[in-house]
Structures are given as C-alpha cells and as structure tokens.
Amino acid sequence: MSSGFYEKLAKTRHYIHAHPEVSEQEFETTAFLKSYLADLGIETLNYPLKTGLIAEIGSGSPIIALRADIDALPIREKTGLDYASTNGAMHACGHDFHQTSLLGAAELLKNWEDELQGTVRLIFQPAEENFQGGYQVIEAGGLEGVSAIVGYHNYPHLKPGQLGLKSGAIMAGVEQFEVTVQGVSSHAARPDLGVDTVLTVTTIVNNLQAIVAQTVSPFESAVLSVTHIDVGTTWNVLPAKGFFEGTIRTFDPQVRLDVIDKFERVVRTTAEQFGADVTIKWGNSPSVTFNDKIITPIIFENSKSFAEVVGTLPSTGGEDFAAFQEQIPGVFAFVGSNGDEGAPDWHHDDFVVKDEALPVAVNYFVESALKLLEYYGEK
C-alpha cells in the first residue's frame, strides 16, 4: 500500500485524537465514523446502539467481525503533541489508533469487495473503558451470524512492526469489589461499648493478602489489591461504618472462581469475629480475554507475512473484548505502538502512539479477515 494511504490515515488519527469523547458520550465520534464510511461507499447498519456503529462489507456467509473501540478517558492530555486534545478528555489508551486502523482496513476491504468469500462486519464499539460497550453490542444483535471476531490493543512496549499473540489468556479477568462494614459507634475511650469498624476493616484487608500468597498455586497467578479505604472522621470516636474497595485480576476461569469464593469467606468470617455486618458489591467487569486455541495459531502464522510476530505474556489489564469471546471464537493481539525505553503506558497523560505502527494494525485486520473467511468457508 502506498505511503499516501498511510499519510491520510495518520491525519485521520490526529483528527480523532484531537476530538476525544468518553464512554457512552461518543456522539461526534460516531457521526465522524459514519461520514467517513459513507465516503467509502459503506453504509452503517441499523443496530440499536446509542453510540458506536456496525457496518458490513461483502455478502453471504461466513461472517467475520472486526472490532475497534472508540471511547477516550477523562484525562487531561500532557503530550505536547500539535494535535493534542484540549477538551479535558484524552485518547490515553490509543482507541484513536484502533478505530483509524479499522477505517483503513474498511477502505481496503471495500476495494476488494467483489472478491470476498463472505461478509466482514465492522464493529466500532463504544464504552470499552467502562466495560459496558461489548455487552451493548451483543444485546443489540451485533454478533448474530458471526463465525469469529478479531480485535487488538496497541502495546507501547512493542515496537511498530511487531505483533504479540498467544493462545489462551492474553488479558486478565477483572473483578471490582466494594465492601461496606457496619459496626457500632462509641467513644474512643470506651471501645468495649461499640463494634470497632477500624479494627474490622484493617484486619479484613490484612487477612485478604493471604489468599494469593497462601492459596493460589505458584504455577498459577492472581492479583488482589485493596486500593481505597475510608473509615472514620475524627480522632476520638470509633466510627459506625467503614468502606474499602479494590480489584482482583486472574488469567484462569477456575482460579477466578476460587479467589472470589475465598475473598467472600474471608470478609464475612473476619467481620463475624468482631460482630460487624458486611455488604460485598461486585462491579460489572470483564472476564478473561481468552484467545481461541484453534484459530489463534492460524492467525499467528498468517500474520508473519506483514509483521514480526512474537509470543507475549498476558497483560493484567482488562478488556471487554472478553464479552465477545464468551459467545464466539475470537482472536485478540497486541500491536506494537511505541517501543521506546520508558514509553508511557496506557492511561498516562503523556501516552503516545507512533503513526508508523498503522501498517501492521491495518494489515492485521485485513489479512485476519481474509484468512478466517477462507477458513470458515471451507468448514
């Protein structure tokens, strides 16, 4: 593909980067994408999505879906780029790059539409950052008839030209927990007349650390982090209520269930020892991003024609692409997007994606779609 094609895509990405919108507010982004696709002769399909869109190229079966997320984060940008955003939001996770590469893939696939052996469904997904968009697409019927789905995330610790891929878990299952502890308030001079929520909360948090350290196999992995504690307001009163929250990350579905079960038992048993009541609330967050063990090796080998393909360790970050993989086979890769020593990671206010990463991202979408159309067409 000519350098002019990627120069145009780079300018498109810069425009999207300069106009970020946060989860479920991607109205102008959606309008821009619809207009861009219409100029390519690709009409948006009528799916009941508030933001985001779905379109198709080709016809008939099989149907292979390509997915890019489109939302930004509520972060003030400090990159110093001449196309930096100024509206208080930022594409600090590179979703501007994701959607631009899918636009580029759409243009190429549209040019070859008569030769496609089926249908390519383009999913420009909203609200990945709050983990709701994948489920919204599924509820809207966006996966109906789809044989497999392909997605990726840019990866700042790989260089442009590199692509990381592995079968099985590639991003973590994410649990968000909130625990409220209800005790009985008393004067600090008479703790015997109350139920001490400070002691209860701190003991629970301390006991939780033993779950990963002592009960998860050294050949498995899990992370349990308490990140926020709120209990008490003054120096001489034992508070009636306390609160803490945090996250659990796992890579294996059974380990996930085991850690959640032990978490709940530790919390309730410890609270009971102090005579306190507890409420545990779990957030709606994604399960493990788990690459299909049949089609992932096919895409791994196929991608060697346009990228330096490397094995990769899974990321402890979460991705609601996992929602799609719970329904149909899916492949999720890491596309090298920076590679400099000390390159800022996702969600940092100085996070930077390099434009020279676009060719691998575009080709990953295009070549994966063509290969999977061929694979499922022969089944």
User: Helix content range of the residues, please?
Assistant: 25-40%
In spatial order, strands of the major sheet run: 1-3-2-4-15-5-14
Q: What's the total number of strands?
A: 15
What is the CATH topology classification name of the largest domain? Aminopeptidase
CATH superfamily of the largest domain: Zn peptidases
Q: How far apart lie the N and C ends?
A: 31 Å
The CATH C-level class name of the largest domain: Alpha Beta
Notes on the structure:
The chain has two domains: 3-171 and 288-377, 3-Layer(aba) Sandwich (Aminopeptidase), CATH 3.40.630.10; 173-282, Alpha-Beta Plaits, CATH 3.30.70. It is built from nine helices and 15 strands. 47% of the residues are buried. The strands form four sheets. Strands 1-3-2-4-15-5-14 form a seven-stranded mixed beta sheet, with helices on both faces. Strands 9-11-7-12 form a four-stranded antiparallel beta sheet, with helices on one face. A two-stranded antiparallel ribbon has the order 6-13. It is 34% helix and 24% strand. Strand 2 (63-69), helix 3 and strand 3 (119-125) form a beta-alpha-beta unit. It is α/β, with parallel strands linked by helices.
